[in-house]
Amino acid sequence: MNTNDQWWLATLGRTVIWARLRVLEAGTAEVLDSDGVTQPYDSEDTARAALMDAEFVALDGIDDGDAQDRGFALDELVPPGGSDEQLRAQMVQKLPSRH
Question: What domain of life (predicted)?
């Protein structure tokens, strides 16, 4: 994982929709969305605002209580991995049903 990558997520029931925010050296940012499309932004702040407007939250800002409020356990959240091409198929994850 690139050290300038931040994982964000939105949830719908037991479905997790991922987005990767990447801050570039020039100070600009890009978001790889759940459709596998990279959206450019003029700054990290602009990219973060767009993600928050779309009801995404930063993975590193979620604690056990936040996860439970959303209907899952924190340890169930594993960001996608691999190349951008491999990530496309992993950006929407259906978590197993809890019994």
Answer: Bacteria
Task: Give me the residues paired with residue 6 across strands.
Answer: 21
Residue 21 and residue 27 in contact, taking contact as beta carbons nearer than 8 Å? no
Strand-pairing partners, residue 19, are 8
What pLDDT digit, counting tens, does each position of 15-50 carry?
A: 999 999 999 999 999 999 999 999 999 999 999 999
